[in-house]
Amino acid sequence: MAEFVQLVIIGLLAGGVYVAVGVGFGLVWGVLNIVNLAHGALVIIGAYVTWQLFTAFGLDPFLTLPINAVALFVFGYALQRGVINRIIRAPLLFTFLLTFGINLIAVNVLLLIFKSDFRSVTPSYSGQGLELGTIVIPYIRLASLGIAMLLAGGLAFVLNRLRTGLAIQAVAADREAAQLVGIDLRHIYAVTFGLGAVCAGVAGGLIGMIQAITPTAGEPYTLQAFVVVILGGLGRVSATVVGGLAFGLIEAFAQSIPGSGSVFANAIAFGVLVLVLVTRPQGLLGRLR
Amino acid sequence: MLRKRVAIVGAAFFVAAACGGSTPSTTTGSTIVLGAPLGLTGALTKESTLTKQGYDLWLDWINKQGGINVDGTKHPVSIKYYDDTSNANQSAVLMQKLITEDKANFLLGPYGSGATATDAAVAEQNQIPMVEANGAAQSIFNQGYKYTFGVLSPANKYLQGVIDMAATLNPKPATVFMLSADDNFSLEVADAIVSYAPTKGMTVFPVKKYKNGATNLSAEVQAAKAANPDIVLNSGHLQEAIAINKAAKEQKLNAKIFAYSVGPSTPDFISALGKDADYVYDGSQWTPQVKYKADFYLTVQQYVDAYKQKFPGVGDPDYHVAESTAACLALQRAIENAKSLDPKKVRDALAALDVTVFFGRIKFDNRGINLTKPMVVEQIQTGTHHTVFPPDVADAKPMFPTPSWDQR
Fold first, then answer.
1. Which residues in chain B (40-69) have CB-CB distances under 8 A to chain A?
2. Does the pLDDT at position B297 exceed 50?
3. Tens of pLDDT, residues A219-233
4. Residue A116 falls within a domain, yes or no?
């Protein structure tokens, strides 16, 4: 029983990271119709921002997250405004190619700056945790889950309560109509991509504390974000939260299968994804569009 | 490069003139081109960079000597590198390009068992010898290939030293939990332990396999914790070794010995984990503390010094660097022994090679594996690597048992 509870906790805590990675990806996809293949690179840029601030200035990694968010917003805004906006109306394949190229450039620039060394953010409380009998809850992972939830809540607040957020939703619903009522499309596109980058950056900061990072460590996260968003359903932040936590749980239980079972953890997670797509094509909580 | 060649030719001319026009004992021959695809980007960048360092260290030295002496003629050497983006198939494509377009005389191995396996097939088809230092899976050598030679100890030896060492400790550990990535190399390491540990009176739990390259191994570590073993072994790679050590601390998995096949020997393991890296063991191909008597090239100490001079600020060379240099040395000595640049004759000289260098003895069996060099066991003690087994090359005693996470 204790082992089962421990597995649920492991799954939910891992899911927190997937939520953080997924929400930004889902936002950009839902609004801009861009499957951002550079999302993992943005995640790792965020991880390096946190690592750099932690190593150079001894700043607590959790305190670096706001700085991280600002830096990534600026970067994301500029990237969309200066580069991606130019082909935003082109067929999906072009945005695929462009973001793939951006990913390659970002990873190789990181390789030039930081080399391929493995880095990790290890504050004094790293690896410590709450012990309830035989069950352990690591502090950093717990805090990461909390921050992922805050991030998702914050994003939902921006989208549903703020003027800019409503403009983003309007653009997502009908870009011509939004333009007719005076919304500056290029600005809203850039803000949306900037917000997506913020989520990626914060997720990266958390990942830097949880695992060792290298410039290439972001690539799996692009795929995971993709799965999480489809699993939950496109177009709603709460759906991505459900998708992320579900993915974490599925993965944890698949990994706990004795023997070589965990080799198939990915296969099982993707199997569930296919099942969801067959039975509920809009995702667990998604809206039909 | 051109300037260097002009300088060499110039020097040879000067020597000839100084000798009053008599025939010099050595002349300068054509440049020998060696080819090596390496993962200079992608998942294996770190290890591939270390491999390149090892190759370049030797390249500098041999060219300072004027090149490889082939029957009285000194041939300068150049190494042509390509980036295979850490992709085994791409590595094979580039290996073919090196042979057909760049006219590489001989081949040096890529990084990793996967790429080495695909490249070995290319070397065989073209009948060009490849000396490799970073593919330890025996499956590479069980194909009947005649042109691939590996200077490193094969995969099945990686963690056997840890079991041998554990058998000498008091109280003797009795149970082993084995985690393994699902690639060929890692599975060979794991299978060897499953059959070897019982011969030392230890019980092995069923191997827990995970996907190669995994970064989240909490659930696997949880399974190890449930078994409560004396020894936790992992056969995987640096990334996974770090992930397991982090998860072990988080989940409070306490064992008397933690040993990982690949990872702890690299400086990154210590810099990424800090104090948590202490007490961890690994099976290592080579350490800067080993005591081998070199027949040629540098002594162990000279090698360490030369490395630090060329690559300042990165600490001692790790075994990836050393074995890569050793591959070059094996090829050099084989070319010298063959007295020819003919691929077939150099292949035969490699097959007959028996030489000891700073890296250890190099002598290939009929499959091309080097079985004569032992693996050593290293332990990280207060942030520094120490060789702890076998006792005749060790510079420290094992710190045993590993204290529980709460008591560190």
1. 41-43, 45-46, 49
2. yes
3. 889 999 999 999 998
4. yes
